[in-house]
Prior knowledge:
Elements: H1 4-22, E1 25-38, E2 43-59, E3 75-83, E4 87-97, E5 100-106, E6 115-123, E7 127-136, E8 139-152, E9 158-166, E10 172-183, E11 186-196, E12 202-210, E13 215-222, E14 225-233, E15 238-247, E16 250-260
Antiparallel strand pairs: 1-2, 1-16, 2-3, 3-4, 4-5, 5-6, 6-7, 7-8, 8-9, 9-10, 10-11, 11-12, 12-13, 13-14, 14-15, 15-16
Amino acid sequence: MRYFLPISLLALSCSATVNAQQSETRQWFNSIQYTTLENTGYDYDTIDLSSHYYFAPQQNSGVWDDYGYLDTDSNIKLDYSNNDLANSFGVFGEGFYGNWFANLEFSDLSETDDYSVGVGYLFADDLKVSVQMQEFENIDTIYRFTAQYNYQLNDSDYLGLTANTDDELEIWSLSTRYFAHLNADSYLAVDVAYHYNNFNPYITSLANYYFNRHVAVGAGVADSKLLLEAKYFIDSQYYFTANFFDRADGEVYSIKFVAQF
């Protein structure tokens, strides 16, 4: 019996750590990101600002940048982007009424002729289906269909699946996310997606390993090009993310600061 007591205490300690992490909820997510594309002929810089507010507390999955796979609460998001060529201010809103929901998006408020509006239904809090109408100036209306499914493996682990296509099946994508608690404060998140279009179908993948509550590193590919990521969490409210992407037209570097409350 003396061998089982330490093991039981360790398991209890790990469980307490996970529960403590998951008890932290956030509703307002803000970020600022600087991105630069370094090409042999030119440099291209972009600054992005984002503010995303949920009208209900969001429960994290055990790490400070993952709050589940599905959005199931009313929310509104504002985005501002400024680069060497132009700038834009976009807004997205999604509202729930029971299990029904509707959303509206303007990617750039200076171009109000370009917008998308959608409706959908949430089944049992784990299957979200919707249809979206996208309007663009001088382009025919596009209808897009999306299905998202979250399979909860246990209190922290889950497998998420998303399928998205247009009404003519010319542009579609399939993606999945696997999130798992490994031990103590270590977690693993793996994202894989296949994007199809008539010009350049490609696969993206990224695996992030969380060493503890403060440090995570990731690696993957996007269109057969190397993608690297690193995260440093100051605490549950503030963290940094740095990325490197070896694109076909040059090397892309970005750094993002997130503040969530």
